[in-house]
User: What shape does this take?
Amino acid sequence: MGFASSLNVSPVSLEAPAQQTLTLTLRNTGERPITGQVRVYAWTLVDGEDDLNETSVVNVSPPLVEIQPGADYTLRVVRSAGEPPSGEEAYCVVVDGVPEAAARRSGVVQLAMRWVVPAFFFDPVAGQARLSWSVVRKNGEAFLSAQNDGDRAIKLVNVKLGGKPAGKENSGWVLGHSQRLFALGKSVPANLRVTAASGKEPISATAEAK
Assistant: This one.
């Protein structure tokens, strides 16, 4: 059984006030030991797309784990900065599978598997997400823009414009005080009604054409 089918990572996202420690559980449901490398990246949205960068503000312990068959391993994700965040800080905990040494020696090709878990540290008084929608154009292409003017991030699923999926990647997080773009191609539906699911409630809004 391969790494992909035998490693469970939970929960699928993490959040806590800045002074608390987050925990992530890795479970090996297979019959062979699993080795995983764990790193944390600062997460922002640049020009409407995800951007990950190395950070020393948040640390994960331990960074390299070996999990025996049937065992769990709990990782600790700690924000080490003394100053509280302004609103909310977003990070991604990335778990990469390390191919077995025996497979490397024998020349067996193993696909590198990756799990990405969003992690948020927030100020308890941070405001909730506040979305506004518009249709914008960039380099001749049309995009549905989700602008979040609140402090907290929000996850959007099954985003549609005029009843049609907003591009192939019609799901994603919109971080606080950030914009996410959903590619529409060259044509824009006449109906600019936006619908989506979120972790809190269904979304129904009208996009502004710009």
About this structure: The chain has a mean pLDDT of 90. The chain has two domains: 3-122, 131-209. Residues 41 and 54 are 5 Å apart (CA to CA). Residues 101-106 form the longest helix (6 residues).
